[in-house]
Amino acid sequence: MDIIVVGGTKQQRALVEQAAAFYSNFLIGSVSDLFITIKLKRNLLNKEDVKADCLLDEDEDDYKSFEIRIDSLMNMPGVLRSLAHEMVHVKQYAKGEMKDFVYGNRVKFKGSIVNDNIVEYWDQPWEIEAHGKEKGLYLRFLEHEKIKKRNV
Predict the structure, then answer these.
(1) Burial class (CB in 10 A: 0-12, 13-18, 19+), 44
(2) Is the terminal CB of the chain with fewer CB neighbours within 10 Å at N or C?
(3) pTM of the entire structure?
(4) Among the listed residues 108, 106, 130, 135, the one whose alpha carbon sits nearest the alpha carbon of residue 118
């Protein structure tokens, strides 16, 4: 698995790369053919009204190439929790649990088809899973790296 982190500060990039490797190993295992670019972008929240998101490479049909964008102006706990959330989405696509349909706003998630224009964000099953796992992943990362919560 290739993980590239761009933007932000040197310290942010190092910690984000470390966390992304931990999250991916925990969620996905040793899949070698995934490519993840993580972009730490200033003012993403103000400019696009999102703290973070996970984008698929539009030229790929096999869900192997991802771009995660995170607002670099958040504090490090916010950045690392947002990364955990988005890595759950990477897992969902990479393991074939989630598939977007080209036409319409339909998503197939674990065998069920959901219209994401009709189902509210907080009720979308892929978001329920990602929100449910983000804090635990973040805390496991801190514990694994022996980082005190007040420092990160």
Answers:
(1) buried
(2) C
(3) 0.93
(4) 106
- For residue 82, how many C-alpha atoms fall within 13 Å in the half-sphere facing its CB? 24
**Cα–Cα distance, 141 to 133 (Å, whole number):** 12
Rounded to the nearest 10 degrees, how much is the dihedral formed by the CA atoms of 124, 126, 127, 131?
A: 140
One-letter-per-residue 3-state SS of the chain = CEEEEEECCHHHHHHHHHHHHHHHHHHCCCCCCCEEEEEEECCHHHHHCCCEEEEECCCCCCCCEEEEEEECCCCHHHHHHHHHHHHHHHHHHHCCCEEECCCCCEEEECCEEEECCCCCHHHCHHHHHHHHHHHHHHHHHHHHHCCCCCCC
Are 44 and 69 a contacting pair, CB within 8 Å? yes
Q: Give residue 23's Cα distance to chain centre.
A: 9
Per-residue pLDDT tens digits for 17-44:
999 999 999 999 977 789 999 999 999 9
Alpha carbon 132 to its chain's center: 13
Q: Say if residue 87 is exposed, middle or buried (CB neighbours under 10 Å; 0-12, 13-18, 19+).
A: buried
Residue pair 28/91 in contact by the 8 Å Cβ criterion: yes
